[in-house]
UniProtKB/TrEMBL annotation:
Topology term for the membrane: Single-pass type I membrane protein
Gene3D superfamilies registered for this protein in UniProt: Immunoglobulins
A GO term, aspect molecular function: transmembrane signaling receptor activity
InterPro entries for the chain: CD300_family_receptors (IPR050671), Ig-like_dom (IPR007110), Ig-like_dom_sf (IPR036179), Ig-like_fold (IPR013783), Ig_sub (IPR003599), Ig_V-set (IPR013106)
Assembly behavior: Interacts (mainly via CDR1-like domain) with dimeric IgA. Interacts (mainly via CDR2-like domain) with pentameric IgM.
GO terms under cellular component: extracellular region; plasma membrane
Gene: Pigr
Annotated Ig-like domain residues: 251-354, 358-459
Organism this protein belongs to: Alaudala cheleensis (Asian short-toed lark)
Protein known as: Polymeric immunoglobulin receptor
KW Cell cycle (keyword) present: no
Signal peptide: 1-18
C-alpha cells in the first residue's frame, strides 16, 4: 500500500521538478549527427557527426558504415576508404571543433539506406544512426540545423526570415507528441519551466531574432522550431536539432542564490577571454522581454545601483564575481551573465530574498567634517571569525581594496579588533576626497562572501551629524 501511495505522489510531481534526474541517450552514447540526410541523384552531401572532446575520443578511429542486417560495413574510416568508394567519399576529423565531416559525391540510389557514424570499433563503440535518402530529382527537404550543447551551458541560435516577417509574431517551440510546445514568443508568452532562462532578442536586420537558453539540461535535448507566424498554421519556420552532452570539465555554477533583506548576494559568472576588448555584462531578466543592464566591465553602472553592485574579475579561476548589496524584496528575479564572445559562458541565476538580519552590521550612512577623525565600523558574528575581512572603496569599475593598518601605510587603514569582532576603517584626518561608498566584506580562499555598503559624506562646514565619528 505504501508503494502505491509513493507512485501516486510521483505522478503528481510537476514536469519541471524532474529536470536533470533522468539522463537520456546522451549520457551513455554522446555521439550526435543528423537524423536524416537528403541528396539528389548525381549530386553530393556533406554532414558532420559530433563527439565529446576527450583525449581518447580525439585520437580514436572515426568511421562511417552502412547497416546490412546485423552488420555495419565500413565505407570510410580513419585512414581507410572501401573499394568502389575511392575518390567520391571522404572523412575529415576536426577535433578542435568536436566533430568529423563526411562528404559523399556522385550519389547513386545505392547510397540510400541506414548508416552509422561513430568512434572506435563498428557496433562496439559510440555511434549515431543516420538515414540517407537519395531522390531522383530536386527538391529535397531542408536539413535541420544541428547544435551540440554542453550540459549546464548556454545555447544560442539566430533565426532570420526576411524583412517581410518583421511585424509577424516570432517564436521558439519544442516538438512533442501532440504538437509543438511554446517555449517563448515575441508576445511575451513564456513556458513556466523556462522562466528566467530563455530570452528572445530582436536583431538589427528586420525579420531576424535570436534565442538564448541557459542552464541546458538533459531534458532540453530534442527538436525545436524557430519561426515567424504560428507553427503548423501559417508563416515560416526552421528546424533545430539540439543534443545535450556532458563535459565533465565544464564548471557547475549555482542556479539559485538566497540573501537576506539588507544584506548582500554573491553571483559567479564564467569568463575565459579570447581578447582584451571582450564585453562582460550583468543584467536582470525581464518577463516582458530583454535583459535590463545593471553593470558591465567598462564602468557603466545603472544609476539606482551605484554603491550597491560591483564586479570582480578572477583571471586565475576564469570567473567574474558580482556582489549586490543592500538587498530588497524587489531585487528578486533572474540575473544573467552575458558576454559578446563565447556564448556558452553566458549563465543565469535566480535570486531569492528572505526576511532576516544581515550578519555584518554597522552604520550605513556616515557624515563627517573634513579634518576630523572618522571610523567606519563593521561588526561580524562568530561564524565569520576565521574569514578574511576587508574594506574597499567602491567605484564604477569595482571596489579598490584598502591597505591594512599593520602594514604602516598612510591614509585610510583597515584593522580588526578580535575581542569585539569589529573591522574598522579609519580616516585621520578625513578629507573631502574620501567621500563615497565603502564596502566591508568577508572572503575565504579568494571566494567573496557577505558584504555591507556604507556611504560616507564629508562636509567642509559645520558637522550636522556624526554617527560614525568616535
Amino acid at each position: 500500500m505504501m508503494l502505491l501511495a509513493l507512485l501516486f505522489l510521483l505522478t503528481l510531481l510537476p514536469a519541471g521538478s524532474a529536470r536533470g534526474r533522468h539522463p537520456p541517450k546522451a549520457a551513455s552514447d554522446p555521439v550526435f549527427g543528423p537524423r536524416q540526410v537528403h541528396g539528389v541523384l548525381g549530386g553530393s552531401v556533406t554532414f558532420r557527426c559530433f563527439y565529446p572532446p576527450t583525449p581518447m575520443n580525439r585520437h580514436d578511429r572515426k568511421y562511417w558504415c552502412k547497416q546490412t542486417g546485423s552488420r555495419c560495413v565500413t565505407l570510410v574510416a580513419t585512414g581507410f576508404v572501401a573499394p568502389g568508394y575511392q575518390g567520391r567519399i571522404s572523412l575529415t576529423d576536426h577535433p578542435e571543433e568536436e566533430n568529423f565531416q563526411i562528404n559523399i559525391s556522385e550519389l547513386g540510389l545505392g547510397d540510400s539506406g541506414t548508416f552509422q557514424c561513430g568512434l572506435g570499433v563498428n557496433g562496439r563503440g559510440l555511434s549515431h544512426t543516420v538515414t540517407v535518402n537519395v531522390a531522383a530529382a530536386p527538391p529535397v527537404p531542408e536539413a535541420a540545423e544541428l547544435f551540440y550543447v554542453k550540459l549546464r551551458s548556454t545555447w544560442t541560435v539566430s533565426c532570420s526570415f526576411g524583412k517581410d516577417t518583421a511585424d509577424i509574431r516570432k517564436y521558439l517551440c519544442k516538438k512533442e507528441k501532440d504538437g509543438c510546445r511554446n517555449i517563448v514568443n515575441s508576445h511575451q508568452e513564456i513556458d513556466p519551466d523556462f522562466q528566467g532562462r530563455v530570452l528572445l532578442t530582436f536583431e538589427e536586420t528586420p525579420g531576424s531574432f535570436s534565442i538564448t537558453m541557459t542552464q541546458m539540461d538533459w531534458e532540453d535535448t530534442g527538436l525545436y522550431y524557430c519561426g515567424a507566424g504560428e507553427y503548423g498554421k501559417d508563416g515560416v519556420s526552421k528546424e533545430l536539432d539540439v543534443f545535450v552532452y556532458e563535459d565533465k570539465n565544464f564548471p557547475k555554477l549555482k542556479t539559485t542564490v538566497t540573501g537576506k533583506t539588507g544584506s548582500s548576494a554573491t553571483f559567479e559568472c564564467l569568463y575565459e577571454p579570447l581578447k582584451k576588448s571582450s564585453t562582460r555584462i550583468w543584467c536582470k531578466w525581464r518577463i516582458q522581454g530583454g535583459c535590463d543592464k545593471i553593470i558591465d566591465n567598462s564602468g557603466n553602472v545603472k544609476y539606482n545601483y551605484e554603491g550597491r553592485v560591483a564586479m570582480f574579475e578572477n583571471p586565475e579561476n576564469k570567473t567574474v564575481t558580482i556582489i549586490l548589496n543592500q538587498l530588497q524584496k524587489r531585487d528578486e528575479g533572474f540575473y544573467w551573465c552575458m558576454t559578446n564572445e563565447l556564448k556558452e559562458q553566458q549563465s543565469s541565476t535566480e535570486l531569492k530574498v528572505v526576511e532576516g538580519e544581515p550578519a555584518l552590521r554597522g552604520p550605513k550612512e556616515v557624515e563627517a567634517q573634513a579634518g576630523s577623525r572618522v571610523d567606519l565600523t563593521c561588526s561580524y558574528p562568530c561564524q565569520y571569525y576565521s574569514y578574511e575581512k576587508y574594506w574597499c572603496k567602491w567605484n564604477n569599475t569595482g571596489c579598490l581594496m584598502l591597505p591594512e593598518q599593520e602594514q604602516g601605510l598612510q591614509g585610510p587603514a583597515a584593522s580588526c579588533n578580535a575581542s569585539t569582532r569589529t573591522a574598522v576603517l579609519s580616516f585621520d584626518p578625513v578629507t573631502e576626497e574620501d567621500e563615497g561608498w565603502y564596502w566591508c566584506g568577508v572572503k575565504r580562499k579568494d571566494v567573496f562572501g557577505e558584504a555591507m555598503a556604507v556611504e560616507l559624506r564629508v562636509s567642509a562646514g559645520e558637522l550636522r551629524g556624526s554617527a560614525g565619528e568616535l
